[in-house]
């Protein structure tokens, strides 16, 4: 696998999956906060 | 008065909305379009359009549904003004027309799942013949009936017991199955070749405007953004529920599943194909079914020397496909049902009416692939118009007011910046105009009688069918708004 392919893989998968995991972690944190307040 | 139902939690809402977005388009259309548009070269514009088409429209739909508490017809009337009720009616009609034939597609996936489980699918030596004999007979009608029945029963049971509970099972199972198949696919010999093609960008493709237009089309069709479906589910989100964060989860979640499906298909095809893998992935076949219903079953037969193992993986794949289709079909049925509810129908009565109409109007597509392809073409392109109408409604409402009051309200977990205004005001309308013009102009090149409204897929049939629907809705605009807005 050449460098450009690897870079594209890391960038595309990183942004898409990383983005999902990032927003999911914020959502989990916010839900925990809401529950602790309730 | 009956108490309003709401999704019980954020996770219930997210799983249900992911069920809308994740459909057959993520699994079979995505891989085919990637293959036809230079593999990794396609992924770059596909990612860009996630940010400038899908995400802003998903955010908008969540905000409109939560604010108006109406289906697309009443919602657009409330946001854009009563004069534009016909736009909401058009959005609702387009998704209803899609429901008629999408139920047929759901039926195909159910049939292939049954075929895989019973061993019929992998026992046959000629998969083209199997598909042709199935699609030319009356079996698609039976499976279309089953699909509409399943979808209607879910909607009949309501938001929490029906939509939320069912999607929790469907979406979680679908993702789990995809992960199991993913592990098998990437560990196949030569799977790396598929991954290399899938992720290698080629400059000549990146510079080709058609690749960009196909990437935009894929985003418009597979995220469910601009269809009015997310808007309909957002009607049932609690007042304290956030908009932007949930929207981001749906956009990224949908594309994450597309990537997983792409990796599975490319790894499997490159590993097991004895002939040219690329031509097999990119072939459309009848009604764009070639890869999924003809070629993949052939590959599953060669997965290992054990018939049982091959049957298990083929069954899992078609079960995932069926679950993806059912979860999307449910949302299509709910959109039409919600429209009937807004007209004053009670949910259970509305579901029976919509389920019956869905079955009756889906019959032509179930029995004739040309009718199916025609409806897929006409209403698929019309979805881009639906997205533009949603952007238009927000512009009428005031984009900045919309962003500050409806998107970034007190309950929002993250705030959306001014970039949203620019995208809704300029980029969405521009993308919609370019995309519709390109698709209609392209049809002239593949049909010399492009004006003929009775051909399967050309500009004429779009103008004719859209025209009839739009004229009726514009003429009866006042009547529709009275029916919707008078009801509590």
- The number of helical runs of chain A is 1
Radius of gyration of chain B: 22 Å
Share of helix among residues of chain A? Answer: over 70%
Distance between the termini of chain A: 51 Å
Number of strands of chain B: 0
Relative strand content of chain B? under 5%
Q: What general outline of chain A do the C-alpha atoms trace?
A: rod-shaped
Biggest interface goes to:
A-B, 20 and 25 residues
The structural class of chain B is: mainly alpha
Which runs of chain A of at least 5 residues are low in confidence (pLDDT < 50)? none
Estimate the mean pLDDT confidence of chain A: 93
Anisotropy-based shape of chain B: globular
Order of helices and strands of chain B: HHHHHHHHHHHHHHHHHHHHHHH
Q: Secondary-structure element sequence of chain A? A: H
Largest sheet of chain A: none
How does this structure look, described?
The complex is a heterodimer of chains A (38) and B (488). Chain A is mostly helical. Chain A has one helix spanning 3-37. The model of chain A has no long low-confidence stretch (mean pLDDT 93). Chain B has 488 residues and is mainly alpha-helical. Chain B contains 23 helices and no strands. Helix content of chain B is 79%, strand content 0%.
Feature tags:
heterodimer, A: about 40 residues, mainly alpha, rod-shaped, B: about 500 residues, about 80% helix, globular
Structure, briefly:
The complex is a heterodimer of chains A (38) and B (488). Chain A has 38 residues and is an all-alpha fold.
Topology (elements, then pairings):
The complex is a heterodimer of chains A (38) and B (488).
Chain A: H1 3-37
Chain B: H1 10-21, H2 24-36, H3 40-68, H4 72-80, H5 85-118, H6 120-123, H7 127-135, H8 139-156, H9 159-186, H10 191-199, H11 203-206, H12 209-222, H13 229-234, H14 244-272, H15 277-282, H16 290-301, H17 307-342, H18 347-367, H19 369-397, H20 399-407, H21 419-446, H22 459-475, H23 477-485
Helix pairs in contact in B: 1-9, 1-14, 1-17, 2-12, 2-14, 3-12, 3-14, 3-21, 4-5, 4-19, 5-8, 5-17, 5-18, 5-19, 5-22, 7-16, 8-9, 8-17, 8-18, 9-14, 9-17, 10-14, 17-18, 18-19, 19-21, 19-22
């Amino acid at each position: 696998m050449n460098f450009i392919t690897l870079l594209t893989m890391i960038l595309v998968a990183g942004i898409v999956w990383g983005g999902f995991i990032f927003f999911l972690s914020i959502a989990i944190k916010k839900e925990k906060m809401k529950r602790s307040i309730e | 008065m009956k108490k309003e139902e709401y999704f019980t939690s954020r996770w219930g809402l997210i799983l249900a909305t992911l069920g809308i977005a994740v459909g057959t388009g993520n699994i079979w259309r995505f891989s085919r379009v990637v293959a036809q548009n230079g593999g990794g070269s396609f992924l770059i514009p596909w990612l860009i359009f996630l940010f400038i088409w899908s995400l802003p429209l998903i955010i908008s739909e969540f905000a409109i549904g939560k604010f108006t508490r109406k289906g697309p017809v009443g919602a657009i009337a409330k946001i854009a003004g009563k004069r534009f009720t016909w736009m909401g009616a058009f959005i609702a009609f387009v998704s209803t027309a899609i429901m008629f034939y999408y139920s047929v597609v759901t039926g195909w996936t159910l049939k292939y799942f049954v075929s895989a489980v019973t061993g019929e699918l992998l026992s046959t030596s000629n998969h083209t013949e199997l598909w042709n004999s199935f699609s030319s007979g009356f079996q698609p009608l039976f499976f279309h009936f089953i699909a509409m029945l399943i979808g209607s029963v879910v909607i009949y049971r309501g938001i929490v017991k029906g939509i939320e509970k069912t999607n929790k099972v469907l979406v979680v199972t679908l993702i789990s199955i995809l992960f199991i198949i993913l592990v098998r696919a990437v560990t196949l010999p030569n799977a790396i070749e598929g991954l290399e093609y899938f992720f290698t960008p080629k400059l000549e493709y990146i510079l080709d405007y058609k690749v960009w237009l196909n990437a935009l089309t894929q985003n418009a069709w597979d995220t469910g953004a601009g269809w009015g479906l997310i808007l309909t589910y957002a009607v049932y989100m609690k007042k304290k529920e956030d908009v932007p964060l949930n929207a981001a989860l749906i956009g990224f979640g949908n594309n994450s599943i597309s990537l997983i499906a792409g990796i599975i298909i490319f790894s499997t095809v490159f590993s097991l194909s004895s002939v040219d893998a690329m031509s097999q992935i990119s072939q459309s076949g009848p009604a764009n079914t070639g890869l999924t219903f003809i070629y993949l079953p052939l590959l599953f037969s060669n997965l290992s020397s054990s018939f049982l193992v091959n049957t298990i993986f083929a069954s899992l794949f078609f079960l995932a496909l069926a679950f993806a289709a059912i979860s999307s079909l449910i949302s299509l049925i709910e959109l039409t049902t919600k429209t009937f509810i807004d007209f004053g129908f009670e949910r259970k009565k509305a579901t029976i009416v919509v389920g019956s109409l869905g079955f009756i109007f889906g019959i032509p597509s179930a029995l004739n692939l040309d009718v199916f392809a025609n409806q897929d073409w006409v209403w698929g392109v019309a979805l881009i118009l639906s997205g533009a109408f949603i952007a238009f409604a927000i512009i009428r409402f005031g984009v900045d007011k919309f962003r500050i009051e409806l998107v970034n309200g007190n309950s929002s977990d993250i705030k959306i910046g001014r970039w949203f205004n620019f995208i809704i005001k300029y980029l969405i309308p521009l993308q919609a105009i370019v995309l519709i013009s390109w698709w209609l102009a392209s049809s002239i090149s593949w049909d010399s009688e492009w004006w003929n409204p009775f051909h399967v897929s050309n500009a004429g049939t779009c103008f004719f069918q859209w025209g009839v629907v739009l004229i009726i809705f514009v003429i009866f605009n006042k009547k529709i708004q009275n029916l919707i807005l008078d009801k509590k």
